[in-house]
Amino acid sequence: MSDPAKDASENGWIAKHRAEYLEDGEAAHDWDSSALGGPGILPTLLLYTTGRKTGEERIMPLIYGEVDGAYVVIASKGGFPTHPGWFHNLMAQDKVKLKVRNEEFEATTRVAEDEERERIWKRMVEIYPPYEDYQQNAGARIIPVVICERV
């Protein structure tokens, strides 16, 4: 069975957004999600990880929020029952690189837990309401809330 997230990342809308962001982060930062049924303009960043199996650089555009001076991304994979590949890569390395608009920098990451997760989750759902549906679709998988703190 084909993985729609992988297909989109390699050839579809994710690949297109990534290419646009790499060319001009300022122009691609505010992504219009309405073509895919989303709520409209959303802030995005690029997350750079190293493939834990391949050792190759992976770049993923992600919706983000800012909480307490950190950047927050959600490892939703559209509500699939498994975590996205970028999340597994992130967990296997000490630091990642982020590009926010046209600024690139290193960050450490951690997964929010308990009350902190719930508080941040609610803020992220305000930014992108479909996250609630994604959590329902994910079944028993608790979707990770990842905090990225600039080094």
Structure, explained:
The structure is a single chain. Helix content is 34%, strand content 32%. With 151 residues, the chain is an alpha+beta fold. The protein has a single domain, classed as Roll (Pnp Oxidase, Chain A). Strands 1, 2, 3, 4, 5, 6, 7 and 8 form an 8-stranded antiparallel sheet that branches. A hairpin with a 2-residue loop joins strand 4 and strand 5 (70-74). The chain is globular, with a radius of gyration of 14 Å. The chain starts with a helix and ends with a strand.
Give me the secondary-structure topology.
Layout: H1 4-10, H2 13-23, H3 25-29, E1 30-32, E2 41-50, E3 57-63, E4 65-67, E5 70-74, H4 85-91, E6 95-100, E7 103-111, H5 114-127, H6 130-137, E8 145-150
Antiparallel strand pairs: 1-2, 2-3, 2-6, 4-5, 5-8, 6-7, 7-8
Helix pairs in contact: 1-2
Compact summary:
α1 runs parallel beside α2 (13-23). The chain has 151 residues and is of the alpha+beta class.
The CATH level-2 architecture is identified as Roll
- Give the proportion of residues in helices: 25-40%
Order of helices and strands: HHHEEEEEHEEHHE
N-to-C CA distance: 40 Å
**Secondary structure tally: strands:** 8
CATH superfamily: Electron Transport, Fmn-binding Protein, Chain A
Total helices: the number is 6
Mean pLDDT: 93
Major β-sheet, in short? 8 strands, antiparallel
Residue fraction in strands: 25-35%
Unreliable residue runs: none
Which CATH C-level class is it?
Mainly Beta
Query: Which term fits the overall shape?
Result: globular
Class by SSE composition: alpha+beta
Rg measurement, Å = 14 Å
Number of domains: 1
Per the CATH scheme, the topology name is Pnp Oxidase, Chain A
